[in-house]
## 1
Amino acid sequence: MPLRMWAGIGTVCVLLGAWFAGYRLTPLAAAKVNDGPSVHEFGVVSYPWGRVLLLNTPKGSRTALVSRSVILWRNPANSVVGPERTGPVHTVGWMSYTGDGGRQQATVVAVKVSDPAIAYIAVGPSGSRQRKTVELNKPLIFSWNRMIGLNHLRPIALSKTGRELYRYGYPLNTSVFDTSLLQWYPVPAAN
């Protein structure tokens, strides 16, 4: 057989191998490998090495990390925030990731608010805390180019006067860390 034919067969084999390994031509197509075809993107955060996609799926909100490999994309990590919540404030996306020996790092948090008393959401560790103005029923997306653990993010919902209305985390005075309890809790008003 001529060399050209062998090169063609080799190229087809490499492309098929990449396809079966989950590589795709676009970030959204790579995310659909793990989350199915009925996925709709509602937010994206770009990094030099990849993207974090915030997705609506038939099973609820998902966060997919996709990384670029030459011209193809793959989806090495997904996260699910937990059961869908319909309260006045709820987290609709979260990813804290490090990969490639620490060269790829990302933290993304997405929050949706339906309570008009909430004016701001603040998230992040001291020194890089972010505060954003709420647009009702639209996701607020916070991002950092490093991995930050949930215990350092300390998300809170604030009124126009800066009073804490809700905090994200586990119930106070508990020693049980059940992820179904990880949610937004009202902060009692000071006397």
## 2
Amino acid sequence: MALLRTLGASLLLAASAGVVRGDDAFDEQIENAIDRGTEFLLKAVKGEGVAPDGKPVGGWTAYQEAPMGSAAIQLYALVKSDIPYNFPVVKEGLQVLLGMQPGHTYSVSLYVMALDAVLSQMDVELSLGSPIDQKERRAIEQRMDAMTQWLVRARWKGKGGWNYGMHDPGNPRYDNSNTQFAILALGVARKRGLKIPQEVWEEIAAQFIDIQQKDGPEVQAMWKLKDAVDAAEVDAPKPKKGKTDVRKPDAKPSWGVEDVKVFARGWSYQDTKEGPLKHGVTFNMSCAGASSTLIAFEALKFVKAYPVEKRQALEKSIRDGLGYLTTLMNGKDSWQWGGLGDIYYSLYSLEKVGDIGGIEAFGTFDWYKAGARTLVDRQDKQVGCWGTTDKPGNLNYMSALALLFLSRATDLTFHNRPMVRYGTGREVRQSDAQKSREWVFIPKMGVEVPVRRVLKKLRYLPTPKLMRMSEGIVEHYDRQYLPELIPVLAETYEKTPYKPVKKYVTDSLVKITGVASEDMNVQRQFLPKWNEIVKAGTERDRSRIPQLRAILQEGASPILVRKALWALMRINDPDTFGDMLPFMSSDDLETRTTAYEAAKFIANRSGLVFTPTAPKDRREQQLEAWRAHWEKTRPK
């Protein structure tokens, strides 16, 4: 996995440890958008999906101009959004594609990337304790290899470019959009260990160097790279024989030449008889050029026979391409500038550059946050889709592209959204996780897990290991924020077909809410009340005393009762002393202890005695003095 760093004018290849975002509220919006988009695609491929206007959106082959591509991109997006390999919809998608013959560059490329995503998902599921049929795995690998070799044969040999279909010597043509997809597919195939002739990579490098804009203004190298990480932070224990491994990131020293100049030079759609820039340099095609040169560099960087002068030219091409993209994005605070065309394709193309190159920001422009915010805003919140309905299948493929961006699907790098994190330094990561609450550290398992993704995966994959992770989330989540889990747990209950998962949810909700109910709407009512209590106690807001009393009188949840008693103690209004007394008679030790502490604090009377752990008859005798005190001091 390559990370490209220019410090002044030098480059660094290092490792990416995954997505780390600090804005918890925004993170939740992103995960909610992924969930809604996934649900839309799951319904769409089964023929049950509808557009915002109520019209059906079609199934696997909804985009009829390219049925293989339509099925492949939806499968790719679903798997990258954590739908398990063993889930029936994924198996169905694989069967649909198995019956199709290659013929279209976009489609075959997406098929290769979808198959690679399935193989990666199989690795994840095996690590989570789900059995994998090795015969099926080999069949997928063979199919991926067959599609890869089709792409190798389909290229314009000697040119390093691809057309819509197989190259026709009698009518030669290529464009950088078809070429972009082919190279992305070849990149994942190479990482998977499939055989791709070295000449293919040399042709690609030479082609993009040749057709890049010849001149451009000198610019500063202002792109910001993710920091390299200690491999121990993301390194999993070595697998036993026959088990799947977890790919390690490459940690490489800085390279390149100090004090080289960077010029903003981009790429166009294709070269023609009128010249390579007849179509004009564009954002999308410059993303295509940047990702293609980055992938070619990864394939050639250790090839001793590759001439030094060509390597240097390739490095310069990469730097200048990034320089061009930086000039477009630096200084922007939102995804707002002209000439982008299909924004979903633009975002997909940019994600490839950002994650293959390990780029966190282009100047001041945080590309992922800006793109994610745009997608969160543009999603139809009711249906869960993105895009327009002017052509059949548009919603399907545009929604798939949006999901691929949000989930950071590029698998040319180390996992961008890992399911677990192993290794040393857990104390530090545990502290970080407590601050963000996006991850939870589970001491017994020695891992950190992403909360929402584990619970989402559990809906479809209730393996014993995943169940233990899910139980660990509830056990080790920051106690004061535990009710935050109610919405995602309720959603898990409603969307899973598995009884053990439903039982896990109801058991967990009893721990959180104190209410044993399978009605998730009842469980959801807990969180707003909890938030109201916390706000009242934190702000010592006397105006909220009536609401707190109502919660005490309702008494549906002992946990809410105890929190309301805490809030009244914080407010410390003498008139609420009497509200504590009934709960000092509770059969629940924790509740009567909480009530006693609150009453003692409000009364400020050391002479009153109460022993929460004493036998019931003795407690009742002690309470008589408390009731007598209340009768003397209560407002008349």
## 3
Amino acid sequence: ALGGGASISLVGGKAKVMDICSPGGIVGVSGTYSGNQLGVYAANACVSMALEDGFYDHIEAFGSKLFSGMEDLMKKHGLPGHVSSLGARFAIYWGYEYREIDYDLRASQKLFRRDLANAFINGALDRGLYFHSYWNANIPSHCGFSVQHTLADADITLEKMDAVMADMKKLL
């Protein structure tokens, strides 16, 4: 995230459009957090971190360990589902294992198991893990991790997920 949790937004566009915006242009542009110092400092720090050696390698290593571990646990406990990810963002698709359906909203909504998703999220919360949820919507919630998470954190997370998924078997 651009501000690492601090409120900031970014607007960009073609030069012929952006050149007419203030400052300097004839169209006034303003927002609640426009030029907010905390957000700007946070964004500068996040961009600096993203340019450090090993930043993206760490994101890749953590994600690979977490996502493959989650899918291994699903198989271990006989739970239908899979993880779809890009970088540090991911979604857990409960109820089916065919990734090609992820891009077909109607098909994925028909197969998505909200009962499994809610059981996972509640079980995770009980064990100190937070996953975002849309609770009643038949779509997966999108989650993420940060560069501050260590590989040891992935091990702890997977250990807790193992217990959560063991409890979920009763829903099958």
## 4
Amino acid sequence: MKETRLKKILDKLSETSGFITSTELANHFNLSKKTISRDIRELNTLLNKNGAKINAKPSLGNKFEVTDSKLFEEFIRTEWYKHAFEHDDRNNPQYRREYILSELLINKVYVKAEDFMDQLVISRSTFNMDLTRAKDFLTKFQLEIKSRPHYGLYVEGEETNFRKAILKLLNHSLADQQTEGVMEDIKGVLYSEIKKHNYVTTLYSLNDLVSHVYVSVLRINKGLELRSDHTSFDKSIANSSEFHVAVAIAQRLERHLSISMNMNEKLNLTMLLISRITPLNSHDAYIIPNNINDLLERIVAAIDEEFNISLQNDLDFRISLGLHLKNMGNRLKYNLILKNPILEQVKSDILPFQIATFISSLIGCEFTTEITEDEIGYIALHINSALIKKDKLKKKKDILIVCATGKSTAILLKNKFENEFLAYINTLQTLDALELERIDLTKFDLIATTVKLNITTNVPIIEISTFLSGNDVESIRNRLKSKEEINYLKTFFSKDLFFVHPEGQTATEILDYLSGEIANKFAVSKQHYFEELMKREALSSTAFDNLIAIPHPLNKVVDDSFVAVALLREPIKWGQKMVSIVLLMNVDPTKGNKSDFLYQTITDLLSDRLKISFVQKAQSYDDFVSKLV
């Protein structure tokens, strides 16, 4: 097992009876003082509970001391191993795959199969399965695992593709004990030089830059620099202002990390900067090129035609998306990867992500390349902002909270209401029960009260607990939805497209089964419908983290709106996730103006684990609908 950094620091401190400064520790472990200080605080918190401490004095440094020998000895004997070593899970196929990839991509040139089997303590057959998974991963980057007699396995491919593959793995198995410190140093250099040269960037873009540069440093340290035959750089970028920033960054990295960056490395860094930093107070930075303006026209027209949502006159949307597409064009031009750290959260907003996926084909045609799921997620953020601005989803309500236990409770309830129902609220007022007589209740759409009210009014009243329980939240949400909306929602679901435990053990089999049922109901080609579903899955998996998949055809096949439901007997693998509820959505926005309410209902379901468990157990159509709405 690998030793953790905490163990290495404690071992170093234990070697001497005197003080060691943080600077000495930082130099010894090749880490920043900030990282060492944080580790010492973490270590001290652990030791203080277990009979020891690190005595830190600003003028002297850090000294290890035992305060209770019996307690400390017991801790070392029974608990310390949990903190002293990295604990891998060799029974986990994902871990084994990443271990194989990291050894081949980073740590060694050749590795024998027998060595992998010994290190992972697995059989030949298990290793062969893990190797197949590793090969599948590398195929996405045009890399290939090959075997050389007497030497072992190795990876063959272009250097630029090696770096892309390593970048993909960076947040998993490749982070060793010194990674964090090196990345912090890189981040400091990048931020300092970007700011010095009067550029700005976002935190996400800065962190993404750090990852890219870190991978470059790893490869340079292995003697694997970018060469002219590795790259197809547009040499004109050497005349760009970003190139001067890249040169300044390279010079500092060379001094700080004892490396040498050739011209190709500097050009590569320039390309990374071009799509991630913006000149401060530069007029050119906010000019949208004609080709992007033309693309925006096609995008808003397509959204209007396909989803019946007009964004033609939303200038903020056109400017924000236009500037994003301008920078995105630079990334695509230079084949650069931009990770989206909030992709899963973005995907849970179904309608924006569905629209973004739909228009990604238009964008891909403009830039003659396929748009990644990470990039689609960024586009969805702009669409989501536009939809929120249009306020399409709900007619907002005026709500009165009646409380009899004082102002503090009223404030607490008001805060909880705002957290749970903000999207439904127009105005929210709190009132003591004794003051009801002096207020006009007819101006409210709903009264929520913690005490029984002896009043006569046409306004709906709902009694709630003082601390707003889960049942209260569900009851209020149902009251806030109009009867018209609920009845309309039910029209999307039908008994003949509701299936409990349908046949199929894979995502493909389930989609094939549902395609057949839909084809029978609407008299369309099963094969055509199935192909459109698979085209959409090829863009990005429609599975979510909470056992739900929401597939839909990429292009319209059926001129109708419906949701086909499949509740599976056991969870099945759907992309990289497990799924037990399938909601196949086929929505034609031109057939009604409340399909957005359907999207909101499904989005609410995705974030409600309790409701998911209820829906999952439904045994009939009526049971399912009642639990959903």
